[in-house]
Amino acid sequence: MSTHDTGPVVRARGLTKTYGSFTALDAVDLTFEANRIYGLLGRNGAGKTTAMQLLTGQIFPDGGTVEVFGRTPAEHADVLSRICFIAESQKYPDQFRPSHVFASAPWFFPNWDEALAAELIAEFRVPLGRPIKKLSRGQLSAVGVIVGLASRAPLTFFDEPYLGLDAVARATFYDRLLADVAEHPRTIVLSTHLIDEVSNLIEHVVLVDRGRILIDADAEEVRGSATTVVGTRGTVEAFVTGRDVIGRDGIGGLASVTFTGPLHPTERREARELGLELAPVSLQQLVVHLTGTEIPTEKEVVS
Amino acid sequence: MTTATLDGITVPPRSRRIWRVMRLHLAAPSVFLGIPWIIVGMAFFVSVAIAVLIALNGGQATGQRYSWAVLSPQWYLVVVGVQAVGLTFPFALGFGVTRRDFWLGTAALFTLLSLVNAAAYTILLQVERATDHWWTGTHMFDSLWYGLGPWYHDFFSTFALQMFVFFIGAATTTLYMRWRVVGVIAASAVVVVLLLAAAVVVTAVDGWSALADLLATATIPGIFTVVLATALLCAVGGYLVIRKATPRS
């Protein structure tokens, strides 16, 4: 929903960001269409925040191009007026309290909804008068979530919005986001490593790992894209021969192999006849398989 | 400048964009207004208390012009300049403020507050004199170089000093925001090298006595013109540096 065209909201080509010898983003291509919910998934340090900072003009690319609403975001007030990005490690001005954040936000976000903000403040139980420095991680996340929702910016980024939020607050965020986006369509980009939590929320998956994009596809498509087959080792191995295997596991004579690609009904019948069990792979399991299994994704978060 | 668009977003003209940056700095008013004046107030009461103690012990406080109490909030205001860039700048970027608008708004606020503080100090100095130094012989504002010349010298020197204090803190922090520690160290090295080079040049032309003569004849407006020029140099330098500065993640 840009000024001049109805093309994509975000278009990045060969986007590269390096820090010394470390390549945070490596020649990434990205296209975000208007009014969809994007999930930017990946492990810690995968490049999610770097991508968001580049798309919001907070940092400058070392290579490639990025266009947001048709032009480079950095230093362009018309583009930046349409963007909201409260970073996970957001710095706040000295002496700031949540009340100051919500009082100043309407000066910068033309679509700011005061009533919505007030409701969310009550629902998330944000202590308005407590210094930002003394907020818990969850309360800090809530402040970011409220700004992101109430700003109603045409392109809104949520950087790890779930961090520290309790189950009730997470459900509130989920419900409020879906309801508000349905009423006021806009583009949402949500980064997280709590993949199961958002898998029903996101419409499009962008999986980043070590600065590269592993998956850039419709969420529905991704969910059905991998299968795990379990059975005796020999039978399983025979069944997956020639398939795109992304994970292997097993105990004794039993094997569990995960592979991507479609599975025809005849193949399913064949598996059943061979005594093999087929199971769909959740988004989170798929991400774990694709980005390394050493650390399950949840364990990184709870701190 | 105002453009209406399909998505209902209107980009305000630059004047409004600068104004909202000024308001953002003042959103928590204790930073720029509350704490500095609390410091002045505390310094004032300490000064009065000391003057009273001197008087009670039979001493004479009147005519003592060596109190630095008048400068008490300046150290804190350097920190305010640092935090304006170190904390408020990354926050403003998240709110979609351009670097240019941020610096223009910040510079506008610094200038406005320097004028306000200069006016306040000038008035307080006159009040101090009119009240026979607060009826206690307290030299809080009528001290150091203050009150030696006409009132507009006090006004100008406070304005110049205040501008310098704000901009030196803010501009130094832009170096950090752009090049991190390396930038600050490199800039410090450059300043030291320039000072040493100047000393070498003065020595080479055997100009130390001429320089001493020059400094001896320096007037209060002359000195503070140099101070203000340095502040403006920081303002311009900070603008150039912040245009490519990036918040720490």
From TrEMBL, chain A:
The lineage of its organism: Bacteria, Bacillati, Actinomycetota, Actinomycetes, Micrococcales. PANTHER family: ABC TRANSPORTER ATP-BINDING PROTEIN ALBC-RELATED. One of its GO terms (molecular function) is ATP binding. The keyword ATP-binding applies. Coiled coil: none annotated. This is ABC transporter ATP-binding protein. InterPro entries: AAA+_ATPase, ABC_transporter-like_ATP-bd, ABC_Transporter_VariousFunc, P-loop_NTPase. It comes from Labedella populi. It holds the Pfam family ABC_tran. Residues 10-235 form the ABC transporter domain. Keywords: ATP-binding, Nucleotide-binding, Transport. It comes from the Bacteria.
From TrEMBL, chain B:
The keyword Transmembrane applies. Keywords: Membrane, Transmembrane, Transmembrane helix. It comes from the Bacteria. The chain crosses the membrane at residues 24-55, 75-95, 102-124, 144-169, 181-202, 222-242. The keyword Transmembrane applies. This is Uncharacterized protein. It comes from Labedella populi.
